[in-house]
Amino acid sequence: MKGLVQFITDIRNSKEQEQEDRRVQSELVHIQKQFQQPNLSGYHRKKYICKLLYIYLMGHELTFGLSEAMALAGSKVYSEKSIGYLALSLFYQTRTEAVDAIFETIHNDLAHQKEDFVCLALQFLSSAADSDMYSRAFEDEVFNLIRSPVSSSLVRKKAVLTLLQLLKIDPLLVTRHSGLVSRVAPLINDSDFGVSIAAVSLIQYIAKLDLDLCTSCTTLALEKLHKIVVDAECPASHMYHGIPAPWLTVKLFQLLETLVPNVDAMPLDQANMHTVKTVIQRAISTAISQAPLMSAEARHTRDFVLLGAVSLAAHVDPSPDQSTIAADALCQLLQSAETNTRYLSLAALAKLAARNDGPVLVTINKHIEQIFSLLRDKDVSVRRLSLDLIYIICNSDTVEQMCRQLLDYLSVTDFAMKSEVAVKIAVLAEKYATNATWYVTTMMKLISVAGNYLDEEVRQRLIQIVVNNDSIQAPACRLSYSALKSGTYPESMVKLAAFLLGEFGIQLDVPLVQQFELLYNCYFQTTVMARCVLLSSFLKFYVHEPQLRPRILELYEQESNSFSAEIQQRCLEYAKLVTLPDSSLLNLVVVDMPPFQSKISPLVSRLGNVQQLQQSFQLSLPYAARSTSSLERPKSPKKPAPPRPRSRKNTNSLMSPSLNTAAASISRTDTDDSSRSMSHFSDSHFSYNSTANPSVDHLPAFSPNWKEGYYRLLHYDQGIFYEDSLFKILFRLRRNHAQLHYELSYSNKSPGTITGLTSEVAANLINTEDPGYVVKIIKHPESTITANSKSVQIFDVTVRKPYLDREVPSINISFVCGTLCQYKLRLPAVVGKIMVRGTPLSKESFFTRWSQVSSLPGGECQKVIRLSSPMQTVILSRTMQLFGFNLLKNIDYNMHNIVCTGILSMAAGGAGCLMRIETNPQDARVLRITLRCTVSGLADILVGTLTDLLDNI
Amino acid sequence: MSIHFLIALNRQGKLRISKWYTSVPDKQKKQTILKVHRLISSRDHQKQSNFVNFENQKLVYRRYNGLFFVMAVDVQDNELSYLEMVHLMVEVLDSYFNNVCELDIIFNFYKVYQVLDEMFLSGEFQETSKQVVLDRLHYLDNLE
């Protein structure tokens, strides 16, 4: 295509932006003119479309060319068709006017005998499909291409991935093709590795939607892995720098992690466990033992396979020996000359260490010097990771060494990391200290070295601990005294010393007068905040040492004229306080510091990454107990501390016994309180129950405007569930026997992006042992929704047996859009929602059943309703029909009455339901409902629902 | 566990190839490309790793002469495997164009898309064998 080359050359030769723009404009005019020619050849059309594409890639917007691109896509010539599809996939996105024509082209190509055309259509679908319009139109054809025995491997791998794209935009697809997994699963083991890796991706995606569908795939995935890793079965074409199918191996590792989300809850069977272990061990040992003389590619590949294996090892088999092997392998990578490898192995080690105990940490600790040397790495992200790792692997045996090294490091570390390092030293020292004096000495050093960039919390926490521990008060005073005396100290040391000496100065063998002199000398060199602390401290000196009183009073009077309001007010108040004739108030103010009762160090919230890392494993692992909260574990008699190898020696020596009991008693009362309030709660439930008045006023607080959507969808099955200025929720319900299949679609109406969207479907069941319904989440909405787009949430509510209307699930939604927005909505998943129309009955059989059911105790409910506004019989009938009833004609002698039937197929057994509504022609506000049901108690509930509905529409 | 987008940029930030595996409006694409360029060109390529976090995703990138190849992947995913995949892609381009340079990519951009469509689909790995991909590409070149 000479013209294209010439055009690109011209663009590249343009000296300035203006010249380039002119060239583009003239070309656009030219192309537009050419496109109007009646018999433009395919070649020319292709050339011009290519030029348009180039212009598009340069960042210009295109306003024409769609129909020519479509004509190209419909061409019989491969190269033209290929460009046509490319053009459509690149700038088709926002145009929907030609959907039908494009769909027809795709249908034709998918069914074409030329395999290359089929491939082009699949490739187009996989990059252009962005709504369920595509999935509904093409899923059958694409699935057939996967299934068909005549499809080549080439077509099959493309079809598998295209189906994955359709599934991404429309997860419900999985429910429409029940045979999907059973068809795709065997492809994992396909002899063509392209087909295999495609199938692995698809199965992994389905497993994330619904794990139960894919349980059978574990064995298949393991078989394939065993073949590659242990038996080295791999075609030469898929060897990459001497390593067999590395990407497929890693994908299979990841698939296994998805298929076995929690080994403890869902253990692998023995044979599979054995295979997993063999594969992992082989993968790791092969990686370690490879010849040192390798290309960079081979080294990278070896490393990523190793990292995948280690991740899987930590996931499926947290046994010490497996993890130790993994840790050892990773530590070897720490010496790598490549930043990438060091970075990744540190990250993997941190993961491993966060979820393991004992032997693994010992193994990692063997390489501690190496890890410390990485604190001085050239890459700041490597430095951060190694700091995190050091924090995680530290224990009471190593804490002294680690803190010493970190303190050394603190003086050389770059400014951005100083505060991080300091916080970690402070937390480690507190968490693992076995010797109180050592703790105080370390903290004093920390404050001397890093005082200027230290968070206030570090100092505050140190003070809390000193106050609570008699034994370290004197050493703490001595250390802070000599720190001030040395002449060079950060301001936080002044604040610390001011507090300590004021509070515990008497315990020091230095006269109070000398202590005061030292502090007084600091006074005029410090900032307002420190002066405030000093002034309060002097008040304590005033009480303890009569000799100092005139000087302190003089300072207060002098500073009463200070420019700073903070200082001025303090001095005025203190001066007034000390000159009062009666000193009882003074003594009351300057009473000894009571012990602090906060159990959790405020520093914990400053841990950042490390904390997230540790917490992310807490739910799924038995080691959960070893969380950061062990910082100050109260020795509560209710919770005997489980044996934790890592913190064995952490005897909490820092906390004096008195405080421990205090903390324990606090925690006890906490629990008592919560249990009490729980019982209140359930009491109120019962009383509410007995009144049997399903008035919504007693319900938990829902967001304003919840009612409109709730009542709309109590009888309709689709519509707007909620709407305000920020976003809108559309609602779609499919009834499938006992199953209510919900699809909520969240649309962003705001001009900005919605981020952090979470939506939780919370069951409000009274009886959780034998629940009335079960909620199963199929798809969560995406957490980010850009302006004008939407995201879908899918879940099922399976009705097992009757439950009250006020037990229906609530939906708790929260997201950030400018500010944090939270909603609590009520899902109209009442038991009546599963009703399907009963069979039409003749007058005779209706009355036979009517009387049969009446003998059942609790089978009937009759109620007179007075509506707030009159309701026409036609509307009433229509509402009942929408609700699910089948209206029967000519049964009742009174034509104004409504007679209908319905069937509820609950999972625990079905129920038939007959209803008669008598209306009053004189007063359309009064109704009498008589409802009979074959399951006891259900009639009451249904009448309640209907009353509630009729009252609110 | 898939690729969100794949782009090739030169050092000045000129876009050479962009392939999006999630549906994103054009305007946002442009912004993202600007941000990616700003982020990556500011990093030290001698000392820093080839991975950097970016808006809830992770960029895996590598520079070949004046051209950056960037993939955005999930934070939890195996970064190094994508980095090596970038390399495999460059190896394929190198063989296909017989010693590839930026100019080849500029003048044959539509062929580069063809290469991508043979290696990735829906943001997933489709074919990881250089030989299989090259055979297919040569076969397609011989079609009319």
TrEMBL record, chain A:
Record carries keyword Manganese: no
Q: Which species is the source of this protein?
A: Pichia angusta (Yeast)
What this protein is called in its record is: AP-2 complex subunit alpha
| Feature: compositional bias, Polar residues | 650-660
Alphabetized InterPro entries for the sequence: Adaptor_Complx_Large_Subunit, AP2_complex_asu, ARM-like, ARM-type_fold, Clathrin/coatomer_adapt-like_N, Clathrin_a-adaptin_app_sub_C, Clathrin_a/b/g-adaptin_app_Ig, Clathrin_app_Ig-like_sf
| Compartments where found | Membrane, Coated pit
Keywords in alphabetical order, please: Coated pit, Endocytosis, Membrane, Protein transport, Transport
Similarity remark: Belongs to the adaptor complexes large subunit family.
Q: What does this gene product do?
A: Adaptins are components of the adaptor complexes which link clathrin to receptors in coated vesicles. Clathrin-associated protein complexes are believed to interact with the cytoplasmic tails of membrane proteins, leading to their selection and concentration.
Q: How does it sit in the membrane?
A: Peripheral membrane protein
Boundaries of every Clathrin adaptor alpha/beta/gamma-adaptin appendage Ig-like subdomain domain copy:
711-828
SUPFAM superfamilies (alphabetical): ARM repeat, Clathrin adaptor appendage domain, Subdomain of clathrin and coatomer appendage domain
Q: What is its main location?
A: membrane
Give the matching Pfam families.
Adaptin_N (PF01602), Alpha_adaptin_C (PF02296)
Q: Where is this region: Disordered?
A: 626-682
From TrEMBL, chain B:
Write the record's keywords in alphabetical order, separated by commas. Answer: Membrane, Protein transport, Transport
In terms of SUPFAM superfamilies, this protein maps to: SNARE-like
| Signal peptide from the UniProt entry | none
Q: Could you tell me where this protein is found in the cell?
A: Endomembrane system
User: Its Gene Ontology biological processes?
Assistant: intracellular protein transport
What's any one GO cellular component for it? Answer: cytoplasm
Decide whether keyword Transport is in the record. yes
Query: Per the record's keyword annotation, is Transcription included, yes or no?
Result: no
Pfam families, from UniProt?
Clat_adaptor_s (PF01217)
The segment(s) forming the AP complex mu/sigma subunit domain are 3-143
Q: What is its main location?
A: membrane
Can you tell which superkingdom this protein's organism belongs to? Eukaryota
**Can you tell me where the transmembrane regions are?**
none
- Record-stated family: Belongs to the adaptor complexes small subunit family.
**Under what name is this protein listed?**
AP complex subunit sigma
- Per the UniProt record, the source organism is Pichia angusta (Yeast)
Lineage, uppermost ranks: Eukaryota, Fungi, Dikarya, Ascomycota, Saccharomycotina
